[in-house]
Amino acid sequence: MLEKPRTSLPVLALLLLLPQSIYVIGDYLAVGIRFPFFRFQLAFQSVSGPGNGTAANSAVSIITIIREIQYIPAGFVGSVLGKTAVATYVWLAALGILILAAVLVVSWQFLDNHEHARYLGPLILVSGALFLVWAIVQYGPLFFSTSGYSIPVGLPVTWYMGYLFIQAAKEQGK
After folding, report:
1. What pLDDT was estimated at residue 6?
2. What's the pLDDT at 12?
3. CA–CA distance, 87 with 94 (Å, rounded to integer)
4. Got the DSSP string for 70-125?
5. Distance (Å, rounded) from C-alpha 130 to C-alpha 107?
6. Which pLDDT band holds residue 11 (cuts at 50, 70, 90)?
7. In angstroms, rounded to a whole number, what is the distance separating the alpha carbons of residues 138 and 134?
8. Residue 62: is its pLDDT beyond 80?
9. Coil, strand, or helix at residue 36?
10. Phi first, then psi: what are they for 113, rounded to 5°?
């Protein structure tokens, strides 16, 4: 399946567009789906006022990775070395490794550099492991804490694709 670079490029593009986790912040203050380059988030806010009791407002946000990086020095996520900031750094590392794998696939396809094919599988596996570390740093080892919970839905697909790239490199080496 992945022995040809033309089939590998769409597979890696899928990994860059695949949702990596579904998450809940706090006691349902916000829910969202996290993709490698952005997250789609629905935040809830209760508003109470005279005569209307309590009403709930919701806000839909698409938070890009660049905006999330800007939140750290602005103090929106606590301190620069707080839990959410460290989790963001881990996410950036995972995304950077996935982008490096994409560059190697492009090199493999257009420059006909078959040497790069053997690095793809391990890079994808490491990026998947870092996505898992993000969930552990942000929500704890069981993906659940007082700050919310996360379901790493993209992790099995990411690791399976890494395994397929490793198998393709082994077959190509024979």
Report:
1. 58
2. 82
3. 11
4. HHHHHTTTSSTTSHHHHHHHHHHHHHHHHHHHHHHHHHHHHS--GGGHHHHHHHHH
5. 24
6. confident
7. 6
8. yes
9. coil
10. -95, 95
